[in-house]
Amino acid sequence: MARRKAPEELSVEELRRLLVEKRRGARKERLEHFRRTGRVVSVAPDLSDFNSYQSAPIVDTAEGSGSAPELALANPRRKWMDRILLAVEVLAVVGLMAVLLNGLGLLRTLNTEVAAALKPETVTPTPLVMAVVLPSGHVPPDAQGNTKPNEAEIPDHLRPMVQSLANIPIPTAAPDQGIRIQIPALNVDAPIVQGDGWEQLKKGVGQYIGSADPGRDGNVVLSAHNDVYGELFRYLDRLAPGDQIIVSTRQRQYVYVVDRTVLVEPTAVEVMASSGSPTITLISCYPYLVDKQRIVVFARLQN
Q1: Is 83 helix (H, G, I), strand (E, B) or coil?
Q2: φ and ψ of 13, to 5 deg
Q3: pLDDT tens by residue, 159-169
Q4: 21, exposed or middle or buried, with CB in 10 Å at 0-12, 13-18, 19+?
Q5: Phi-psi group of 18: left, alpha or beta (phi > 0 → left; psi -120 to 50 → alpha; rest → beta)
Q6: Cα–Cα nearest to 124, from 194, 170, 181, 177
Q7: What tens digit of pLDDT does each residue of 254-298 get?
Q8: Fold category of 175-301 in CATH
Q9: DSSP bridge pairs for 189
Q10: Which residue has the higher pLDDT, 152 or 264?
Q11: In the chain, what are the domain boundaries?
Q12: How large is the average pLDDT for residues 211-221?
């Protein structure tokens, strides 16, 4: 009979095996006790040896362990739902940004339109048809001072057009239009009216419709009679370079300085052309009581 070894004589492996056997025996005793008392539990199968005990897999015997496959199947589905929700959120943010940008664009457009309505651009009116003869033309007055427009100055083929333009409406008065002209060298102080037709020149110095307003870039064209209706421009030929022409509006005065004086034919309408700088042109019939030509005075705005 083999001698039983003392514990201190056993190797580590033998001690470990002995401990396992002891635990296994204690476990069997507990199982037998549970069977005798009527208690039934699910337990792992017995291990045949120490090696199988070490390598035995750990099995989760808790209730509901059968839901693990369902969770494994639910994970991909949940991932797809998360992706769909993320895409919806991104689209919502992009749509909100588009609405905000569109709103800002509409506000900018409305502000621009309101600013343009509050500050309309001031433009110089342009006549629809250029004059064919210079204004203020008339036949010399008779002994009683009677006179009439000189239609002989108008070329025959242009007379129907001139007659159709005789009743052009006078524009509404504006604050920047000229209302008074003063020529100190000639002692002239007269009102300015809009339009240079026969009836307008009876009231004062007429401004050609479509010419520039005083002080603005362009040509202010003024005309008056020399021997009827006040003889306002009778002595234009006495003006010399450097003489002043003062034109007043409702807001301020503008001083022009005479450059030169010329004599032209009634059809020399090019003297009424616009200019790139502030200028003024005075026109009247010439010579006195003959009225076969026009005297034209050019002046520039004084700095």
Answers
A1: helix
A2: -65, -40
A3: 777 665 666 67
A4: exposed
A5: alpha
A6: 177
A7: 999 999 999 999 999 999 999 999 999 999 999 999 999 999 999
A8: Sortase; Chain: A; (2.40.260)
A9: 182
A10: 264
A11: 12-39, 175-301
A12: 95
